[in-house]
Specification:
By secondary structure, this protein is an alpha+beta fold. The chain contains 23 helices and 27 strands. A hairpin with a 2-residue loop joins strand 21 and strand 22.
Length: 722
């Protein structure tokens, strides 16, 4: 009795009360496999979510705790002709490399055989046809058969094995008509050769395999290249962390780290967990984590992220997030969800491809019958049917949308945008209005000192160190300027007033103007808030405000140049919103809005026929993000906000918002182009094949050419932005 693998042993909490497991799936060959696999698993009792990532052939299944689904998943897959096993990253990489090697070898064998058979054909027909004896012609045909039959048996394995699994499961896929066409062409050629016929089609069968393998190899390489972009995240991880146990430093696996652990990170090492620097200083490279391309100087108090590379100094960290809750883990989860999601166009292509395979068989059979009724010989009728089988293979249709989706998703990720919804690309391409929240979206999430250049640096440092002893939001913003981040001893905070301490034997105060005994303090401009500092005879009024993201003005200009209507809807006070909108050249703005007010504004625009992109980060923005046609939020946004957004972007810049719009426009155009290419190809090719005007060899060239064409066209989705 075969043993059943208990997948519950590999399950991990999915975060929504369910358990989930990732499975590597063998036997996936086309987009039609997605619905077949997801459909059979979704029917199992207790299953809550099923997502198949066609790019990396990985299936994620989530089920209710206690459900019998884990024991039935692999059996259900086997019933459809697919094999699954728990996903292990190293094993997956090995299997992917083995698949690439297998395809390359099959391609090489098919190419070598095709060249030799073509040479034999040229040798037969290079002279005067009337001078060739039947014996010579038969000899070259049999020689071609000795090359073609074993070569086809070897090179055709990817298609034959896939077709056999589908037929055993009493279903079909796109490899079924391919396999039937190749086998019929070879079988007909052997029969023709045995009967001393003038023509054989060994070259057609082998050339068909060669071009199919070429297309499949290119598709595999394209997907592997795109996966490598996201795979860079795995490379950023370090397996070992240097943790302080008392005064001793011990090397431990990263998996055992917990919040508040203290870590030592030496120059040249990657940071193993999200944390706060509590000692030392250095420069770190966090380009693939936050999207920033320049190294960032860090010192005590700075926040750092797992995967960042430490360059110049030794750091001591206190862990703030580990065990799957770090920023890099969140990015990976978003990437996996995006790669598994499907757009509306992809779902349409999936349905068409699923129906297409049986239609191909019926069309070929009717063609054969029709030619026999019309008086053609069995030979001519079968050859015409073989050409129809080959030329109508729906490979181009199946690749039309997924190829663009894969390339566009990779391009978005390289530009700091991670999709959270399968149809986000299409909806982004439809927008005509962009609404921005202010705080944390147009501005950086944390307020900064805006008049530091106008204040004596020594005085500012004293104020910043004193601010370390207060939790008031303005004091927290000022404290970021402190270096070193060491609070003054004996500091006392008076609630609602400020904080005081002795500095060099003289009392210093930080807080309100009244607390600091400063009269006639002018209110800061541009909606900033102020905090006062006095030490002896020295004083300063420190202005603190939300600062615009570094490239906000350039991005607004670029979006405006594309004809988009830009607006600001903010919950912040009107006097704080006005200068931001003015600086960005946005005429239509509103402040002091409640979440319901933002939704009302968006709904009114929708009633006017507008397609709104909402960009926001706060908890109060989550309802508006859900109400908009499509939405974006920064990776620094609250979890609830990210969950409502269709995509998130990395880093402190707004450039990813503009990049997302540009790439989405291009991707949708390419999706439409690919669908039309596939449809027009079939509108022309199928009638020509049914009419018997092409040979199986020409059919193979046409079918492979259409697949290569849509794949190459899809690669334009990752081209240079404009």
């Amino acid at each position: 009795m075969p043993e059943a693998l208990d997948l519950s042993l590999y399950a991990k909490p999915d975060g929504d009360g369910t358990l989930g497991v990732d499975l590597a799936i063998d036997g996936i060959t086309c987009a039609a496999c997605i619905n077949r696999i997801e459909g059979v698993v979704r029917q199992l009792p207790g299953v809550k979510d099923v997502r198949l990532n066609f790019t990396n052939r990985r299936l994620h299944v989530a089920w209710e705790e206690g459900a019998p689904a884990p024991a039935q998943i692999l059996t259900a897959l086997e019933s459809q002709g697919y094999h699954g096993h728990p996903f292990v990253p190293l094993r997956a990489e090995q299997e992917e490399a083995a698949e690439a090697t297998k395809l390359t070898r099959c391609l090489g064998v098919a190419g070598f055989a095709a060249m030799n058979i073509m040479l034999l054909s040229v040798s037969v027909w290079s002279g005067n046809v009337t001078d060739i004896t039947p014996e010579t012609r038969d000899f070259f045909h049999w020689a071609s058969a000795l090359i073609a039959l074993p070569a086809a048996a070897y090179a055709g394995r990817p298609f034959f094995s896939s077709a056999w699994r589908a037929l055993k499961a009493r279903t079909t896929n796109m490899d079924v008509p391919i396999s039937i066409g190749v086998i019929l062409a070879l079988g007909m050629s052997v029969v023709e050769t045995a009967n001393h016929a003038e023509h054989a089609y060994f070259d057609s069968a082998i050339m068909l395999l060669f071009f199919l393998l070429l297309g499949r190899t290119l598709d595999h390489a394209m997907r592997r290249r795109t996966r490598a972009v996201a795979g860079n995240l795995a490379a950023l991880r370090t397996d070992v962390a240097h943790r302080f146990d008392g005064d001793e430093v011990v090397s431990v696996p990263v998996s055992v780290l917990r919040a508040d652990d203290r870590l030592l990170v030496r120059p040249g090492e990657r940071i193993p967990a999200d944390g706060v620097v509590i000692g030392g200083g250095s420069e770190i490279d966090e380009g693939l984590i936050t999207g920033e391309t320049t190294r960032r100087k860090v010192a005590a108090g700075a926040t750092v992220y797992a995967g960042s590379l430490n360059y110049s100094g030794t750091l001591t960290l206190k862990v703030t997030a580990a065990g799957g809750s770090a920023l890099i883990d969140e990015i990976e989860r978003l990437l996996e969800k995006a790669a598994s999601a499907k757009s509306k166009a992809m779902r349409l292509a999936d349905r068409a491809a699923r129906v297409y395979a049986p239609v191909v068989h019926v069309t070929a059979a009717l063609t054969c019958i029709g030619w026999l009724i019309a008086g053609a010989t069995a030979h001519d009728a079968i050859i015409t049917a073989i050409s129809v089988l080959i030329i109508t293979c729906p490979c181009a249709l199946a690749l039309a949308i997924p190829a663009v989706q894969v390339v566009a998703s990779g391009a978005l990720f390289r530009n700091g945008v991670i999709l959270n919804a399968g149809d986000a690309i299409e909806r982004l391409a439809e927008i005509d209005t962009v609404i921005f929240d202010k705080t944390g979206t147009l501005t950086l999430p944390e307020p900064r000192v805006v008049n530091a250049a106008a204040i004596d640096s020594a005085l500012l440092q004293k104020a910043a160190r004193l601010a370390l002893s207060s939790r008031h939001p303005l004091a927290v913003a000022l404290a970021r300027e402190a270096a070193p981040r060491v609070p003054y001893d004996g500091a006392v905070e008076e609630p609602g007033q400020g904080v005081r301490a002795l500095i060099d034997g003289i009392e210093a105060r930080l807080g309100s103007a009244e607390f600091c005994s400063l009269n006639d303090v002018a209110a800061p401009e541009d909606g900033a808030s102020s905090i006062c500092f006095v030490h002896g005879g020295q004083s300063a009024v420190i202005a603190i405000a939300q600062q615009l993201r570094p490239d906000a003005i350039n991005v607004m200009n670029a979006l405006r140049a594309r004809g988009l209507d830009l607006r600001v809807l903010s919950g912040d006070r009107i006097e704080a919103v006005a200068p931001i909108a003015q600086a960005l050249g946005i005429a239509q703005w509103q402040g002091a809005l409640k979440p319901a007010d933002k939704i009302s504004a968006i709904e009114e625009l929708k009633r006017q026929g507008r397609h709104v992109l909402m960009v926001g980060d706060g908890l109060n923005d989550a309802p508006a993000l859900a109400a908009a046609h499509v939405s974006l939020s920064p990776i620094s946004a609250a979890d609830v906000t990210q969950a409502q957004a269709d995509a998130v972007f990395l880093g402190e810049r707004l450039q990813p918002v503009k990049d997302a719009v540009v790439i989405a426009y291009r991707a949708r155009r390419l999706m439409v182009e690919n669908l039309w290419l596939a449809v027009l190809y079939n509108m022309v090719a199928v009638p020509v094949a049914i009419a018997g005007l092409i040979t199986p060899l020409i059919a193979a060239l046409a079918m492979s050419g259409s697949s290569l064409l849509v794949t190459l066209n899809a690669l334009r989705a990752g081209g240079k932005k404009s």
